[in-house]
């Protein structure tokens, strides 16, 4: 279907240049052939004008332009002819391959080659002389050569477009990877910040509330001592985290990350903080002597215990808080249980992010996590957090 869009400015320039050049050749009396049915010199201007008009369609309607141009070129053979008419036809053939549909770009070179062969054979059978080969060569130069040139140019353009699309896709994938990496790092930082500071802030909140609500100098003094201890420890943890974020290492270097060797100190600190609330914290470490653990597993296990003790301080009823660690079958088991029920005194509010953080840590290592109410051996209702972490380096999730 013929396009009605405005011709491209380059097409207008080609049409004007071809027409002006043809008029110049006509004025100086240069023609391509003699003895044609329409031998008047002015008749060559009609195909020239028609071919110049078709140049305006070379980009917007290439198939229409090359079909009509072929008819105009045939008509030009019955006139004295004009070199500009032939040159503009070669451009139409080239444009039909470059700007046409993919199917047309495949068919036109084949058709031009078959026409060239047919013309050569036909004129050779007619003339029986070498002149037929010259006619075939000219036909090939007018039709087949520009079509092949168009194929080459189109292939280069398609390759360049494909390379550009691949580059865009690569850039998009790189941006997606960057966003995912930033999101994962922000989640990791949020877990670390919560696990390091939440316990200390919870203890400060509970004991400051107790100091404000109980009018007893001894209780207030004890509460202030716990507040000061947790404030100092929380400040130290914050400084270490800031050091890690600033230059990749804390004050003590990369080894400052907590390990399971620090569980005794963590349990002791939790016990002293929660003693006033009737909680007794005990540690049953059954993994010692079973060999070293991967660093990510040690950090995850430590943080799970730390967060579980923080939750016990905020929500557990008076009674034992038991921390158990075991290792068997290539897995490290971490279990923390505490008594559930009503408890006297103030409680710190919870947001649920602690359980979410523990679940994320375990999932990143390819382990299993469970948290919920269970029945104790003595029949008491207890809240248990249990995680199983793979200890083989090759089994740790990425």
User: Total domains, how many?
Assistant: 2
Name the strands of the widest sheet in spatial order: 1-2-3-5-4
Structural class, by secondary structure, is alpha+beta
* Rounded Rg: 44 Å
Approximate helicity band? 55-70%
The number of helical elements comes to 10
Arithmetic mean of pLDDT = 81
Pick out the low-confidence regions: 249-255, 394-398
Shape: rod-shaped
Number of strands: 5
* Major sheet: 5 strands, mixed
Amount of beta strand: 5-15%
- In N-to-C order, the SSE pattern is HHHHHHHHEHEEHEE
- By oligomeric state, this entry counts as single chain
Instruction: Give the termini separation.
Output: 57 Å
Indicate the topology:
Blueprint: H1 9-27, H2 45-55, H3 62-76, H4 83-99, H5 102-127, H6 131-213, H7 217-247, H8 263-274, E1 279-285, H9 295-315, E2 319-328, E3 331-339, H10 353-364, E4 368-375, E5 381-390
Q: What does this entry look like structurally?
A:
With 398 residues, this protein is an alpha+beta fold. The chain folds into two domains: 9-171, no CATH class; 258-398, Heat Shock Protein 90. The chain has helices at residues 9-27, 45-55, 62-76, 83-99, 102-127, 131-213, 217-247, 263-274, 295-315, 353-364, and strands spanning 279-285, 319-328, 331-339, 368-375, 381-390. A five-stranded mixed sheet has the order 1-2-3-5-4, covered by helices on one side. Helix 9 links the parallel strand 1 and strand 2 (319-328). The protein is rod-shaped.
């Amino acid at each position: 279907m013929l396009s009605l869009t405005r011709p491209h400015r380059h097409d207008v320039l080609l049409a004007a240049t071809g027409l002006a050049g043809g008029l110049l050749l006509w004025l100086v009396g240069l023609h391509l052939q003699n003895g044609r049915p329409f031998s008047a010199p002015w008749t060559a201007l009609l195909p020239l004008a028609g071919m110049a008009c078709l140049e305006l369609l070379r980009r917007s309607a290439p198939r229409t332009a090359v079909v009509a141009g072929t008819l105009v070129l045939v008509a030009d053979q019955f006139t004295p002819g004009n070199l500009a008419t032939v040159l503009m036809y070669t451009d139409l053939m080239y444009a039909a391959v470059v700007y046409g549909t993919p199917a047309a770009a495949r068919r036109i070179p084949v058709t031009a080659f078959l026409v060239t062969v047919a013309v050569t054979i036909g004129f050779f059978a007619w003339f029986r002389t070498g002149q037929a080969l010259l006619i075939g060569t000219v036909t090939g130069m007018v039709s087949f050569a520009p079509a092949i040139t168009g194929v080459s140019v189109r292939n280069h353009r398609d390759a360049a477009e494909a390379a550009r699309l691949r580059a865009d896709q690569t850039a998009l994938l790189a941006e997606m990877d960057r966003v995912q990496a930033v999101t994962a790092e922000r989640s990791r930082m949020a877990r670390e910040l919560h696990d390091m500071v939440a316990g200390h802030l919870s203890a400060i909140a509970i004991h400051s509330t107790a100091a404000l609500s109980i009018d007893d100098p001894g209780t207030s003094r004890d509460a202030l001592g716990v507040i000061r201890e947790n404030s100092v420890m929380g400040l130290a943890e914050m400084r270490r985290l800031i050091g890690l974020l600033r230059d990749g290492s804390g004050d003590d270097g990369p080894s400052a990350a907590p390990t399971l060797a620090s569980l005794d100190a963590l349990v002791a600190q939790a016990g002293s903080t929660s003693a006033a609330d009737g909680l007794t914290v005990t540690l049953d470490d059954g993994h010692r002597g079973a060999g070293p653990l991967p660093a990510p597993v040690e950090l995850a296990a430590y943080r799970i215990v730390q967060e579980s003790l923080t939750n016990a301080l905020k929500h557990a009823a008076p009674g034992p808080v038991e921390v158990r660690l075991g290792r068997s079958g290539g897995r490290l088991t971490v279990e923390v249980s505490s008594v559930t029920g009503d408890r006297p005194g103030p409680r710190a509010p919870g947001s649920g992010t602690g359980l979410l953080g523990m679940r994320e840590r375990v999932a990143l290592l390819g382990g299993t996590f469970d948290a919920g109410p269970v029945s104790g051996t003595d029949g008491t209702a207890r809240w248990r957090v249990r995680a199983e972490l793979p200890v083989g380096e090759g089994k740790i999730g990425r």
